[in-house]
Write a structure and sequence with these properties.
Number of helices: 15
Shape: globular
Largest sheet: 6 strands, mixed
Organism: Clonorchis sinensis
GO molecular function, one term: GTP binding
CATH class of the largest domain: Alpha Beta
Family: Belongs to the tubulin family.
GO cellular component, one term: microtubule
Protein name: Tubulin epsilon
């Protein structure tokens, strides 16, 4: 039988001995995970899947009707209703940890549960465990998203993430679908419809929280497989991110070092992730040389969100390497990258390097890059433009104002917060391009 070691205990709890200790071999393994959704479809499918025994139903909170793609319903109705239960289930999960380092939150922003209940839970974590890092993997809606109110939900949710998260790793369906297409030799495969990459829901009141990263969509086998492949890319990103916490290495990087080294200002904590080689459940396109590993990770096609960091300014960057890569390989590629990448003037050497000796299964090596880069502001601008197209016409506002506890002023406050965030990144871009400190310009949103 497999040994239950420290690497496995990072994400899993093993069966207990008679005196309360953990068994030395794998037995009754359960994930250190809390699953939350305000409808039962996706979670129900998860508990019918091959992974059904991995999750502990004691750490499960669901409802029936869903949040109706409404942030206010998720935040104020379900957040209030399940506030005590959320606190309690997190407390019980935390008590099973020997050395709690970090909370990972995985949720979408376009729907009601992911954005509303998700950010409510983030507030609980900030209040109850203020010294524990909170890293959020947030699914940004695509431009062709079929949730009408997703611009509202996204802006309201981002306001909470900006204030409460330590780091946000945004991903989107469009970028992930492009990766799958390239793995299969085609980049023209359409994006699966649905509120988030985690799963697609065909119930009357769609919910897009879909927290379990491995959930299989309900609608069809074809779409389900597509979402599984996309989820696998995100799961690999999280595995690479936590590899130093699980395995030995020459330059290990703790989770707290990510925020410490990549976030120079509290609000500017949105990190663009990229990884090489491209891999999904059944396919891997491994580069022939180590140098290609680094070159690929700094191209647009390998970013987990639709952005091109190399054309913009870096505040800081992390290289998290796994496998058979030497220190000289890393140094050589950093020197090469510094010649073509643009960093802010006050952080020219803004690299954080980690090297884990254990490679991913089936690969000789891999590279995860995390970039605090001004390219993210383009996504913020797209979201703001979509938001104002609805907000200027007061469309669908009554769905939010009818929810007890919701204040109409939250729309303007959240939009202003996102606009300020855009301006902060934009100012750093201009300072680097011009070598000056320009006056802060007011963002103009096209109608």
């Amino acid at each position: 039988k497999a040994i239950y070691d420290s690497a496995l205990s990072t994400f899993f709890i093993n069966g207990a001995t008679d005196n309360g200790g953990y068994l030395p071999v794998v037995s009754g393994l359960k994930a250190r995970a809390v699953l939350v959704d305000m409808e039962e479809g996706v979670v129900g499918e998860l508990f019918k899947s091959p992974l059904r025994n991995i999750y502990d139903n004691r750490f499960l909170i669901t409802d029936v009707s869903g949040s109706g793609n409404n942030w206010a319903v998720g935040k104020y109705f379900y957040g209030t209703r399940y506030h005590d239960e959320l606190k309690e289930v997190v407390r019980k999960s935390v008590e099973l940890c020997d050395c709690l380092q970090c909370f990972f939150l995985i949720h979408s922003l376009g729907g009601g549960t992911g954005s509303g209940v998700g950010t409510h839970l983030l507030k609980i974590l900030a209040d109850e465990y203020p010294n524990v890092y909170r890293i959020v993997t947030a699914v940004f809606p695509s431009m062709d998203d079929d949730v009408i109110t997703s611009p509202y939900n996204t802006v309201l949710g981002l306001n909470q993430l900006t204030e409460l998260a330590d780091c946000v790793l945004p991903v989107d369906n469009l970028a992930l679908t492009g990766m799958i297409g390239r793995l299969k030799g085609s980049s023209t495969k359409p994006v699966p419809k649905g509120p988030s990459l985690i799963g697609n829901n065909t119930t009357k009141q769609q919910s897009s929280s879909n927290w379990p990263i491995t959930a299989t969509p309900i609608d069809s086998a074809g779409s389900g497989k597509a979402f599984d492949e996309m989820n696998n890319i995100v799961a690999n990103m999280l595995l690479n991110l936590t590899s130093s916490s699980r395995f030995e290495g020459t330059m290990n990087v703790d989770i707290n070092e990510i925020s410490m080294n990549l976030v120079p200002f509290p609000r500017l904590h949105y990190l663009i992730a990229a990884q090489s080689p491209l891999t999904n459940i059944s396919q891997t396109v491994a580069p022939r040389k180590v140098d290609q590993l680094f070159a690929d990770a700094f191209t647009r096609d390998f970013q987990l969100i639709s952005a091109d960091p190399c054309r913009h300014t870096y505040l800081a960057a992390a290289l998290l390497v796994r496998g058979s890569v030497t220190a000289s390989d890393i140094r050589r590629n950093i020197d090469r990258l510094q010649q073509r990448l643009r960093f802010v003037q006050w952080n020219r050497e803004g690299w954080k390097v980690g090297h884990c000796l254990v490679p991913p299964v089936g690969l000789p090596s891999s590279l995860l890059t995390l970039s605090n880069n001004t390219a993210i502001r383009e996504r913020f601008l797209e979201i703001l433009e979509r938001f104002y197209k609805l907000y200027k016409r007061k469309a669908h506002l009554h769905h939010y104002t009818n929810v007890d506890g919701f204040d109409l002023g939250l729309f303007k406050a959240s939009a202003d917060s996102l606009e300020d965030l855009y301006q902060e990144y934009d100012q750093l871009e201009k300072q680097t391009e011009l070598g000056t400190n320009p006056q802060l310009l007011r963002l103009q949103i096209s109608s």
